[in-house]
Every structure is written in structure tokens, then in C-alpha cells.
């Protein structure tokens, strides 16, 4: 038998070198952000803005001189609500403000997204546009749009129910964009909010971006989400924006990886007002109030405004949906084939039964969308007014968006319903939506279809999903 001579001296040296090496490596890991590399080390500002993307960090770090009654609010005069919202406490009501966007599609305008408890008095509520922290603000009138229902005159000041609004403020003749905006009642009233103005520009708009509502999942959704993201990339989606209430740490790690690669944006969100914002409590609240979906309007419009200057189209869907073209490989090819002019394209949903799953031979049997091929035979051709459609919007023409359709257009809205021969919305559900539950078995579960439209993308997606999951 072959044996090396035992030599303690050499061993000691070797061990020292090894431990030194591991020390250096560990130290290296410690210094670098695990999801970043040395050339992308984050500054404090970047980290702050990742934590709260809606707050005007830079402006707050500047030296201030002006101290008149309309001075730029200091940090301790701001009234925050559930981390990301800021409060405007008006005589008439309370407004929770989320974000503000520069919109130059008609006139230079700031669009402020908020939720209000009661009716906002349009005559006494003003926009304070801050062009400099050391100059008095430009004070303008507001134009108010209720995005989803209108509070009654009797709504209490501290109700749990809130109503999403967009407060629009025209910028008076000026070349520059304000740095931030406050909403307050009258001149020289105490200003308790200060929102960063988001403004992104691209020389040439193109492509399709997806907007989603807030995610809240306690369990790890990495596998299903990776598959959903990769399928959408195959469909030609250039960017997906996720708002995060609560997700599993592993899912977060995955979404951070996708954020770095530029395929997605990830933004934090809570619900405003005197409500809980922890996982189970918020779920309870959403189950207890049938108005849970009201809180989806602000994030999908925040996403819409963020993307309107960069992408030509914005599609509003959830992760249990996929818009799949039938005659084209990508959505962009499908859109280009539609010759009529349109402001929005709307797609009929068709149920894909989510509890009916079959393993596909030659795969790992844990795919989500590909393994669910059994669908309802019925489309929703006759119920256009109801919520069975999802839409894609031309960002030049649609001002703001709802869950299913456009909310308003720059001029006339021209919505087109896309034929189900061209594309449909695969909606993955166990059973029918509540309002058609009574006719579910007779109409929507009468017979079934094995639809494998998605399998065109399977080989490519499986490889990408596996590669992505390796990082976790
Ligand atoms: C580091 O980050 C830069 C900038 O995002 C990127 O171009 C480069 O490929 C990254 N390098 C590694 C080794 O990940
Ligand atoms: C807004 O649009 C007008 C007209 O197209 C243009 O002249 C102006 O420069 C734009 N403003 C900004 C800040 O981009
Ligand atoms: C607001 O009040 C200040 C100080 O009293 C005054 O100088 C300014 O003109 C007022 N602005 C408006 C728009 O009323
Ligand atoms: C799926 O769920 C629905 C309703 O919950 C039920 O009627 C159906 O039998 C289930 N199908 C399977 C295959 O479990
Ligand atoms: C179910 O489908 C069959 C075959 O398409 C049809 O004959 C029957 O009338 C349908 N039942 C109901 C209740 O619609």
C-alpha cells in the first residue's frame, strides 16, 4: 500500500494557508452584496431608494435656506402611513398618497396616485410643485379623477374603506420638471407630505410591458413564478413589474436575480390607513372586505405611469393568467398584424382547470402552466361588459387603466376585442368565478378541451427555468 510520510510541519503550513484563504474568501463575501458584484456596489442613496422608491431622497439631503410658511417640508413634519404612503390631512377628508409621475402626453402634468377616505374638495385642495427646496412652491389647482367608485358625502373620516384617485396638476409654463410634490389645503397650511416625481424617458418607445397587482404569498412560489416569467419572455414581454406585499425569502431572492438582469422591476407596497400590514392579518382583511381589489388600482397605475414613456404597450394581468397568441409566436407579432387603429386590445379569458394536472413525459413533472392543459370549452363572447376580459393598452393613447379595461384616453377610446381565433387569456382557476358559479357545471365544465398551445415554448422555457433555479 502507498502512503505519504506524515509531516506535521508541512501540514501546519498548509492549514494556515487554507484558513487564511477561507478567511479572505469569507471576508470578500461579507463585503460584497451577495446579489451584486464589485462594479455595482450600491450607494446609500440606491439602497434608500430601493427601500422607499417614492420618497425624494436627494431633495431631503440638500441644504435648505428658505424658512417661510411655505417651506419645503422637513423629514419630521411628514406624516407617513404604513411605510410607503404619506398623509394629507385635509379639513374635508384624509388622503393617503403613494406616488407621483410626470406625464407629458397632453400638457405637462403631474399625476398623483392616492387613496382617499372621503370626497376631496376640489376647490380648496392644491398641488404644491417644488422646483427647488429653497424657493417657494408653485401652487396650482387640482383635477380629480376617482378611479374606482366614489366615496359618498357621508363617508367617515377614518373609514377602513378607501377609494383610489388620481390627482392631476398642470405644470405652469416651465421647461423643467418639479423635483417633488405636496398636496395640502390652502396657502401656508402645514404641509405633511412630499412625494418624489417619477419621470422616465426613452428616445424611442417600443415593446410590451406587464403590470401586476401586489403579490402576497407565504409559501415559496419560485418555481411557478420562474415558469410564468420565462413564458412571458418567450411571448415577447420586455418587462414585468411586481409589487410586493409579502413573499417568501426564496421567492424574493429569485425576483432580485430577475431584477438585476432587467427582466422585471420589483417595488414594495402596503395598504394605507388604519389597517394591519402583516401577512395573515392582511389576508383576513382582504377576505373580510369584498373591496380588496380596490387596492390593486394604485399599483397597476403606478406601474402604468412608470412604463408609459418606455414601452409602447402595457398589459395588465395576474400570475394566474397568460395571454397566448394562436397564429403568432409573440404578442408583438400579433399586435403588428392588427391593422385597425386601437387604444386597447381586449382578450377573452378561458378557464384552464388548475387542479387538473398531468405529468408531461420527459419532464420533471413539477411544471405549473405546461401541465395544466385541460380547459373549459367556453369563451366569454357574450358578456363583454363584465370582468372576463383583460387588456393591453397603447401608452400614447390610454391615460390610466383599470383591472380589465382602459380607464380613460387622451382622445376617443377605441377598444378592440381580439378574436379568440387570434389570441386568448388562459386563466388558471380551480372553478368558475363567483358570479357565474351557478352555471359553472352546465356551461363551463360541460365537456373539456385539451389545449397545448403553450407547448411551443416548452423546450426553451424548461432550460431557462432550470438555469434560473440553480441560483437559489
Ligand atoms: C457586474 O456588473 C456589471 C454591471 O451591471 C455587469 O456588466 C457585469 O457583467 C457584472 N459582472 C459579473 C461577473 O457578474
Ligand atoms: C413635453 O412635451 C413638449 C411638447 O412635445 C416638449 O416640447 C417638452 O420638451 C416636453 N417636456 C419635457 C420635460 O420633456
Ligand atoms: C402664499 O402666501 C405667501 C405668503 O403669505 C404669498 O407670498 C404668496 O403669494 C401666496 N401664494 C398664493 C398662490 O396665494
Ligand atoms: C377541481 O375542483 C373543482 C371545484 O373545486 C371540482 O369540481 C373538480 O372535481 C376538481 N377536479 C379535480 C380533478 O380534482
Ligand atoms: C353540454 O354539451 C353537450 C354537447 O356539446 C350539449 O348537447 C348539451 O346540451 C350541453 N349541456 C348543457 C347543459 O348546456
Give the cofactors and ligands.
2-acetamido-2-deoxy-beta-D-glucopyranose
Beta-strand proportion: 25-35%
Number of helices: 10
User: What is the CA-CA span between the terminal residues?
Assistant: 44 Å
EC number: 2.4.1.-
Family: Belongs to the glycosyltransferase 92 family.
Pfam family, one: Glyco_transf_92
Enzyme class: transferase
Q: What would the keywords be for this entry?
A:
transmembrane; transmembrane helix; 2 domains; ten-stranded mixed β-sheet; alpha+beta; Immunoglobulin-like; nine-stranded mixed β-sheet
What layout of secondary structure does this protein have?
Blueprint: H1 8-31, H2 44-51, H3 57-60, E1 80-81, E2 85-89, E3 94-103, E4 109-116, E5 126-130, E6 138-141, E7 143-146, E8 163-170, E9 180-184, E10 195-198, E11 208-216, H4 222-234, E12 237-246, H5 249-261, E13 264-268, H6 279-288, H7 297-307, E14 313-316, E15 321-325, H8 331-337, E16 344-353, E17 374-375, E18 389-394, E19 398-401, E20 406-409, E21 415-417, E22 423-429, H9 440-444, E23 449-450, H10 458-469
Parallel strand pairs: 3-10, 11-12, 11-14, 12-13, 16-21, 16-22
Antiparallel strand pairs: 1-2, 2-3, 3-4, 4-8, 5-6, 5-9, 7-8, 9-10, 14-18, 15-22, 16-18, 17-23, 19-20
Helix pairs in contact: 4-10
The structure holds 2-acetamido-2-deoxy-beta-D-glucopyranose (5 copies).
Family: Belongs to the glycosyltransferase 92 family.
EC number: 2.4.1.-
Signal peptide: 1-22
Amino acid at each position: 500500500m502507498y502512503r505519504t510520510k506524515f509531516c506535521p510541519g508541512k501540514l501546519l503550513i498548509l492549514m494556515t494557508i487554507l484558513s487564511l484563504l477561507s478567511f479572505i474568501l469569507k471576508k470578500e463575501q461579507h463585503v460584497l452584496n451577495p446579489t451584486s458584484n464589485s462594479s455595482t456596489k450600491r450607494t446609500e442613496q440606491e439602497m434608500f431608494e430601493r427601500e422607499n422608491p417614492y420618497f425624494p431622497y436627494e431633495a431631503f439631503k440638500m441644504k435648505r435656506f428658505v424658512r417661510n410658511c411655505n417651506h419645503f417640508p422637513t423629514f419630521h413634519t411628514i406624516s407617513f402611513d404604513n411605510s410607503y404612503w404619506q398623509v394629507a390631512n385635509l379639513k374635508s377628508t384624509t388622503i393617503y398618497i403613494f406616488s407621483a409621475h410626470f406625464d407629458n402626453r397632453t400638457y405637462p402634468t403631474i399625476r398623483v396616485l392616492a387613496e382617499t377616505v372621503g370626497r376631496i374638495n376640489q376647490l380648496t385642495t392644491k398641488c404644491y410643485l417644488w422646483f427647488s427646496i429653497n424657493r417657494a412652491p408653485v401652487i396650482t389647482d387640482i383635477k380629480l379623477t376617482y378611479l374606482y367608485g366614489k366615496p359618498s358625502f357621508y363617508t367617515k373620516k377614518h373609514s377602513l374603506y378607501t377609494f383610489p384617485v388620481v390627482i392631476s396638476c398642470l405644470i405652469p409654463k416651465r421647461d423643467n420638471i418639479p423635483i417633488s410634490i405636496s398636496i395640502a389645503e390652502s396657502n401656508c397650511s402645514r404641509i405633511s407630505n412630499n412625494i418624489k416625481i417619477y419621470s422616465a424617458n426613452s428616445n424611442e418607445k417600443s415593446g410590451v410591458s406587464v403590470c401586476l397587482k401586489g403579490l402576497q404569498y407565504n409559501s415559496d412560489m419560485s418555481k411557478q413564478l420562474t415558469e410564468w416569467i420565462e413564458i412571458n419572455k418567450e411571448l415577447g414581454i420586455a418587462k414585468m413589474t411586481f409589487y410586493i406585499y409579502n413573499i417568501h425569502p426564496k421567492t424574493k431572492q429569485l425576483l432580485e436575480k430577475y431584477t438585476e438582469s432587467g427582466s422585471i422591476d420589483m417595488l414594495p407596497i402596503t395598504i394605507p390607513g388604519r389597517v394591519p400590514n402583516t401577512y395573515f392579518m392582511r389576508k383576513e382583511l382582504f377576505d373580510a372586505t369584498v373591496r380588496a381589489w380596490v387596492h390593486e388600482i394604485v399599483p397597476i397605475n403606478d406601474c402604468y405611469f412608470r412604463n408609459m414613456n418606455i414601452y409602447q404597450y402595457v398589459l395588465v394581468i395576474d400570475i394566474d393568467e397568460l395571454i397566448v397568441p394562436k397564429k403568432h409566436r409573440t404578442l408583438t407579432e400579433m399586435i403588428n398584424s392588427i391593422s385597425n387603429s386601437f387604444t386597447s386590445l381586449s382578450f377573452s379569458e378561458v378557464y384552464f382547470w388548475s387542479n387538473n394536472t398531468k405529468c408531461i413525459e420527459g419532464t420533471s413533472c413539477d411544471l405549473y402552466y405546461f401541465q395544466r392543459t385541460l380547459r373549459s370549452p367556453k369563451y366569454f363572447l357574450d358578456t363583454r361588459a363584465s370582468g372576463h376580459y383583460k387588456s393591453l393598452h397603447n401608452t400614447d393613447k390610454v391615460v390610466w387603466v383599470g383591472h380589465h379595461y382602459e380607464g380613460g384616453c387622451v382622445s376617443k377610446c377605441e377598444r378592440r376585442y381580439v378574436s379568440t381565433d387570434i389570441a386568448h387569456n388562459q386563466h388558471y382557476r380551480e372553478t368558475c368565478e363567483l358570479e357565474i358559479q351557478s352555471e359553472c357545471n352546465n356551461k363551463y365544465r360541460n365537456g373539456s378541451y385539451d389545449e397545448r398551445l403553450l407547448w411551443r415554448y416548452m423546450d426553451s422555457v424548461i432550460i431557462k427555468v432550470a438555469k434560473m433555479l440553480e441560483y437559489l
